[in-house]
């Protein structure tokens, strides 16, 4: 079992040793003396020793070894290999240094620098360390006989060890002793889908399968219907990630086989198999299906064997067909025919349990099409740990995500195992009772009393909190404790230890979790283990983590001579390989996506797996809960500064290659930082971000770390970079965001291997000669200056820049020829380009002709996907011939802002253009035929079209009627005050979102335009007009309707025709009426509309709007604005009490309102309450009081000038996560008690000085600081500057910050 033992990493042999040999030969070059001395050793190492070593390591990687001799031998080999690599780094650094001095001309630097080293004459001292390191490394192989004996010894025991870690096949049998808590909703939902699917699919195509997804049970969430969506119970304290699969992919699956396949996805040990077993054995399922088959899918399987197992299971005996003398293809045909015959005209229920990653294509292509021969109503349920498998083989609009249990349910499950017959559960009250009375015999045998039992229960509660809701861990450890009911000391030892430290429990738990880990392969395993040095709930940035991996060369393929290489006929970079590996970890559920792009979290259980598989190797996280520091050779360390002492860390700092600091570093001196950084001579990665350096002294300790590849000093308080720092020639990543520099070294452009420089535009503009950093992969913004070293020509050789580039101050370019020197066309990795002329220059001083010529010379490469042009004095855009032939076939997005052009180019010919936006083009008066171009299809790929602030625009010619125009257009935004009439041909049935805003336009053809868009889901009209008629019968897909400034509104066909409406916002109107084709009046009763969930209400007009809203019991979001009431009447209070499903409520600009309705306390589902611009409110209801349970998660109070305090019951809001107090000057203190434990974000902005003083942490701790010290993220802004220390929310502990960078974590 990986965990307590050691796995010898194959990455070390396959990558590091080969890399060392290649680099050593590069160093040799023409140095014949050195070549003669060690070439034979390198040859022997490569030809004889390395193959044996690789074979051995790959075998030991498949299963762990406890053999101390073998482990020691490998440790020595790895240590010596690291020493060689460091010696090679030193030689490379000398070559860079000498080249920069001008002794050898170098035009380009890259990862592989062997060709430069060949021409350098090294001194004896230079080579001494390298030769000694090679000799020491080679001496390890003199122990080969001993190594072989160890290998034989290991192999003799391998089968025994492997038998413990192989996956055990599952079956449909449900152990009657297995306790099941907290899965009722998931089981109910799966059964509901299966049984409804029988009714819908019996005579219908699978394309209509989403019709079976009705209203989900409370606590389940569905995201969308057009794409496969994840369904899972909402987790407390966590945000649900949303991973959608391709709709196109699903449609292919549906066409291939008419068989519904529902995936259950989750981490190992969460209970996927158990849920499937319960469903499989459900009596209704048994009765509804003709056949039921349970298939366990092994890691390596043959589809023919799977087919045969299904046939044998149904027939209860082996097939009589003799296949012994037949070929594989013939055997497959025979078995396939038998399977078809077995299931033909039979309705079957099939479970595929534990489908491994990588098998989905075989099932999709070879098995499921065959299973499609069953009777309509058949169903397949699959379980897997991989999200990729789920979305690839699942052909339903839903994926069941099975997460760990909620804490209250897991507590019950764990105690049911730990106390056995002494445990009882009351289903109605949801409470448990543990008592000796339940089984006096067991109590007597274990010498238990009620007091002792109560003591053990308190320990069990604490142990349960450490197991993170994993049912498997609860069962295994609970059973172990049950056998020790008479030993309270043993229970205490389990509480104080980690579960993976106990070999008897870790074997079974890790066996489930580690299935996916063993499938990763050595290179991905190394990347995964690196993540063990980060704290719990750390928010990983995908790109930053990949750059950290690159800093350590974790088995990344090295390109030749610093150039890109080809993989699958496509040029990619090392970052692309790293990104692909990260994506594989995501697909295997080792990371979970967040709502923010490229931000991910690692589940607590997965993090503990990472710790378990790496704790005997190089990785270590120093936590405040640790009683001691491991004495293993640690090379990669994350340090929680809140709980670590310098003396605890110092003994293991001598071999460090990674140091990342988390938490509060305030109590540490600069000397402490120097001690930790300076004790190792091999650092490659150093993260000191947010530590609050009061002096710049650590810079000199950092600068002596010549092997550094990655340095993060962001928000650290440094204000200068010394010259000595610029001698870090290997540095690839430097992050100094949030630092305001008084002085930058003039040698910054000597960091020639720098690939990423994260800094503000102001900092970047201070670097003279930045063009020498030719390896930079990103340059978000480049300010063009007027002096040498800052001209646009600096970009000439920076052809590795990728992603986004923003060129500002283009008005400083003096000629077309100078603009051409930046050679944008050669920057093939650049995907997004933004060109900006300053708008500060007086328009009468602008040279429009020159600016247009500059743009002409800045034509980007054909790989460009996004282009933004801001400012510019020309009357037209560059004459780049906007067509496929001109090389713009990849352009997907164009934005033109604040430009003086008068006509629009022929953008309609661009084949890939998806987004087109024009803003503040004040000179454009007409959009004519030239805009559409001459292609047969006009705007063939355009999805979004936006025009805004084009005040001179009056005429818009229609698209040619004889051509296909805007075939896939989805969204149209028009914010133009002067346009009087809209064309009709661009408004097609594909449009789903339409926004129209104008102060003067009459738009007589609005009704006609709306009729051309029958699939509209979002409609927003804000125009000053007298009358507007909306044909509701033609807008049955409409979900969101916003109307503003329309005096008289008529709903033709009645608002009840808007059957899918879920959000309604009507403001500033005089009358709403409904018109029906038949001469019958609405009876005035509210029409039930269960889909309307959001309502924005001008309270004065509620009598006209509420009849459109349907039954209030379905409303989930309500905004009340501009209410003239002072206090609510009894009837109005009753109205609020009807909002039983309300989750979000906001009162805005209710200037006379003095108090909120008291019936808000009855809204048990309310999660978010916002009070904004209500200056007369002086007090708030007592939310969270013992008499009223509350589900509030977010509270916001803003601009409530007379609000004197927060509710005294605020600390009782146990589910509260976020609290915002802004511009409430009368609040001078927080409630008496500590704020809720689960609160993760607190924002206090522009409030009273007294409140600020009470909440401060330093220099003098405020009276209320103890109430908020447990909150991970605290932001305090005030009118007068406070001397709060900036702290990173990523680094744990209460985090003060005044910028927008905000990432949440909780460091335990």
TrEMBL record:
Residues 533-610 form the Disease resistance protein winged helix domain. Transmembrane segments: none annotated. It comes from the Eukaryota. Gene3D superfamilies: Helical domain of apoptotic protease-activating factors, P-loop containing nucleotide triphosphate hydrolases, Ribonuclease Inhibitor, Winged helix-like DNA-binding domain superfamily/Winged helix DNA-binding domain. Keywords: Leucine-rich repeat, Plant defense, Repeat. Residues 223-249 are annotated as: Disordered. GO terms for biological process: defense response. Residues 792-919 form the R13L1/DRL21-like LRR repeat region domain. Residues 261-419 form the NB-ARC domain. InterPro entries: Apaf_helical, LRR_dom_sf, LRR_R13L1-DRL21, NB-ARC, P-loop_NTPase, WH-like_DNA-bd_sf, WHD_DRP. The keyword Repeat applies. The keyword Repeat applies. Pfam families: LRR_R13L1-DRL21, NB-ARC, WHD_DRP. Residues 224-242 have a biased composition (Basic and acidic residues). GO terms for molecular function: ADP binding. This is NB-ARC domain-containing protein.
């Amino acid at each position: 079992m990986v965990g307590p033992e050691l796995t010898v990493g194959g990455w070390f042999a396959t990558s590091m040793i080969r890399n060392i040999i290649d680099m050593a030969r590069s160093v040799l070059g023409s140095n014949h003396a050195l070549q003669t001395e060690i070439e034979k050793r390198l040859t022997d190492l490569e030809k004889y020793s390395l193959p044996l070593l690789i074979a051995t390591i790959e075998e030991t990687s498949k299963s762990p070894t406890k053999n101390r001799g073998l482990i020691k031998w490998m440790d020595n080999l790895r240590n010596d290999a690291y020493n060689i690599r460091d010696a090679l780094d030193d030689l490379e650094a000398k070559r860079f240094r000498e080249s920069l001095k001008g002794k050898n001309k170098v035009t380009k630097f890259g990862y592989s620098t062997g060709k430069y080293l060949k021409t350098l004459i090294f001194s004896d001292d230079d080579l001494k360390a390298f030769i000694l390191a090679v000799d020491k490394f080679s001496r390890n192989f003199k122990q080969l006989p001993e190594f072989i004996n160890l290998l034989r010894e290991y192999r003799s025991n391998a089968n025994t060890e492997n038998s413990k870690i192989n996956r055990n096949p599952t079956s449909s049998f449900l152990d009657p002793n297995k306790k099941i808590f907290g899965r009722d909703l998931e089981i109910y939902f799966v059964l509901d889908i299966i049984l409804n699917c029988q009714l819908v699919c019996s005579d219908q195509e699978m394309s209509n399968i989403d019709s079976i997804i009705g209203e989900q049970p409370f606590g389940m969430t569905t995201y969308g219907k057009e794409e496969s969506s994840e369904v899972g119970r909402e987790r407390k304290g966590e945000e649900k990630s949303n991973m959608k699969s391709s709709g196109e992919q699903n449609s292919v699956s549906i066409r291939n086989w008419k068989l519904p396949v529902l995936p259950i996805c989750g981490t190992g040990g969460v209970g996927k198999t158990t849920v499937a077993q319960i469903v499989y054995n459900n009596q209704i399922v048994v009765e509804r299906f003709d056949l039921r088959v349970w298939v366990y899918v092994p890691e390596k399987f043959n589809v023919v064997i799977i087919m045969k197992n299904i046939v044998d299971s149904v027939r209860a005996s082996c097939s009589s067909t003799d296949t012994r003398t037949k070929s594989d293809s013939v055997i497959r045909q025979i078995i396939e025919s038998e399977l078809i015959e077995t299931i033909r005209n039979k309705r079957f229920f099939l479970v595929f349990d534990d489908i491994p990653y990588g098998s989905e294509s075989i099932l999709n292509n070879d098995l499921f099409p065959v299973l499609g021969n069953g009777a309509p109503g058949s169903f397949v349920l699959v379980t897997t740990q991989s999200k990729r498998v789920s979305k690839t083989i699942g052909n339903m609009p839903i994926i069941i995500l099975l997460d760990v249990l909620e804490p209250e349910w897991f507590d019950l499950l764990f105690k049911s195992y730990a106390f056995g017959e002494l445990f009882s559960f009351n289903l109605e009250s949801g409470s448990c009772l543990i008592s000796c009375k339940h089984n006096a015999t067991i109590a007597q045998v274990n010498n238990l009393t009620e007091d002792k039992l109560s003591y053990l229960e308190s320990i069990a509660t604490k142990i349960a909190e450490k197991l993170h809701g994993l049912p498997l861990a609860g069962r295994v450890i609970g059973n172990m404790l049950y056998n020790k009911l008479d030993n309270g000391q043993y229970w205490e030892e389990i509480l104080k230890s980690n579960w993976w430290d106990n070999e008897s429990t870790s074997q079974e738990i890790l066996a489930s979790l580690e299935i996916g880990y063993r499938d990763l392969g050595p290179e991905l395993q190394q990347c995964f283990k690196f993540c063990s040095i980060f704290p719990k709930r750390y928010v990983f940035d995908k790109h930053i983590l990949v750059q950290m991996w690159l800093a350590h060369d974790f088995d990344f393929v090295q390109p030749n001579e610093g150039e890109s290489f080809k993989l699958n006929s496509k040029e990619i970079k090392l970052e692309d390989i790293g990104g692909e590996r990260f994506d594989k970890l995501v697909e295997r559920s080792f990371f979970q996506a967040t709502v923010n792009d490229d931000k991910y979290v690692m589940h607590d259980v997965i993090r503990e797996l990472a710790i378990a598989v790496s704790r005997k190797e190089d990785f270590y996280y120093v936590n405040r809960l640790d009683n001691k520091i491991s004495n293993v050779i640690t090379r990669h360390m994350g340090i929680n500064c809140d709980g670590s002492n310098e003396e605890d860390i110092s003994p293991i700092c001598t071999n460090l290659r990674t140091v990342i600091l988390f938490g509060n570093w305030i109590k540490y001196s600069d000397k402490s930082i120097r001690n930790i950084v300076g004790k190792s001579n091999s650092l490659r990665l150093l993260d000191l971000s947010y530590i609050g350096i009061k002096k710049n002294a650590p810079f000199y300790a950092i600068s002596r770390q010549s092997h550094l590849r990655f340095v993060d000093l962001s928000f650290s308080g440094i204000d200068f970079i010394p010259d000595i720092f610029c001698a870090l020639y290997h540095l690839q990543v430097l992050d100094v965001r949030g630092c305001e520099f008084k002085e930058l070294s003039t040698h910054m452009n000597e960091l020639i291997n720098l690939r990423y420089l994260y800094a503000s535009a102001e900092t970047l503009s201070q670097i003279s000669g930045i063009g020498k950093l030719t390896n930079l992969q990103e340059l978000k913004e480049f300010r063009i200056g007027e002096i040498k070293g800052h001209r646009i020509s600096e970009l000439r050789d920076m052809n590795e820049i990728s992603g986004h580039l923003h060129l500002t101050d283009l008005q400083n370019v003096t000629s077309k020829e100078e603009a051409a020197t930046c050679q944008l066309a050669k920057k093939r990795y650049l995907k997004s380009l933004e060109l900006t002329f300053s708008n500060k220059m007086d328009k009468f001083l602008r040279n429009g002709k020159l600016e247009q010529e500059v743009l002409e010379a800045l034509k980007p490469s054909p790989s460009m996907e996004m282009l933004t042009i801001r400012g510019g004095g020309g009357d037209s855009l560059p004459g780049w011939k906007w067509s496929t032939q001109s090389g713009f076939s990849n352009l997907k997005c164009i934005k033109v802002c604040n430009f003086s052009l008068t006509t629009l180019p022929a953008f309609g010919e661009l084949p890939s253009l998806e987004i087109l936006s024009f803003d503040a083009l004040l000179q454009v008066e007409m959009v004519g035929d030239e805009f559409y171009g001459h292609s047969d299809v006009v705007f063939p790929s355009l999805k979004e079209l936006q025009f805004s602030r084009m005040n001179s625009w009056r005429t818009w010619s229609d698209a040619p009627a004889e051509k296909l125009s805007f075939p896939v257009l989805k969204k149209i935004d028009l914010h133009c005050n002067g346009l009087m009439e809209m064309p009709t041909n661009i408004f097609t049935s594909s449009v789903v979102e339409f926004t129209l805003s104008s102060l003067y336009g009459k738009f007589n053809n609005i009704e006609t335009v709306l009729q051309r868009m029958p699939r509209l889901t979002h409609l927003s009209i804000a125009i000053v007009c007298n009358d507007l008629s909306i044909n509701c019968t033609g807008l049955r897909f409409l979900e969101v309707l916003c109307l503003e400034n329309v005096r008289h509104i008529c709903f033709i066909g009645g608002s009840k025709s808007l059957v899918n409406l879920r959000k309604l916002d009507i403001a500033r109107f005089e009358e709403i009426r409904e018109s029906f084709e038949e001469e019958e009046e609405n009876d005035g009763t509210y029409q039930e509309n269960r889909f309307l969930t959001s309502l924005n209400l001008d309270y004065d007009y509620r009598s006209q709007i509420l009849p459109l809203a349907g039954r209030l019991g379905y409303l989930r979001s309500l905004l009340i604005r501009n209410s003239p009431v002072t206090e609510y009447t009894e009837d109005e209070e009753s109205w609020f009490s009807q909002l039983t499903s309300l989750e979000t409520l906001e009162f805005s600009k209710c200037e006379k309102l003095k108090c909120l309705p008291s019936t808000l306390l009855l809204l048990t589902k309310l999660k978010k309450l916002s009070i904004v611009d209500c200056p007369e409110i002086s007090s708030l209801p007592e939310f969270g009081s013992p008499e009223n349970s509350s589900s509030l998660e977010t509270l916001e109070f803003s601009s409530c000038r007379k609000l004197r305090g927060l509710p005294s019951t605020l600390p009782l809001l146990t589910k509260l996560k976020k609290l915002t107090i802004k511009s409430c000057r009368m609040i001078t203190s927080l409630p008496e008690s500590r704020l809720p434990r689960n609160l993760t974000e607190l924002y206090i902005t522009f409030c009273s000085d007294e409140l600020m003083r009470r909440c401060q942490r330093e220099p003098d701790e405020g009276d209320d600081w103890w109430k908020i010290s447990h909150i991970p993220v605290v932001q305090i802004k005030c009118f007068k500057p406070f001397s709060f220390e900036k702290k990173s929310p990523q680094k744990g502990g209460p985090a003060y910050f005044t910028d927008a960078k905000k990432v949440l974590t909780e460091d335990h």
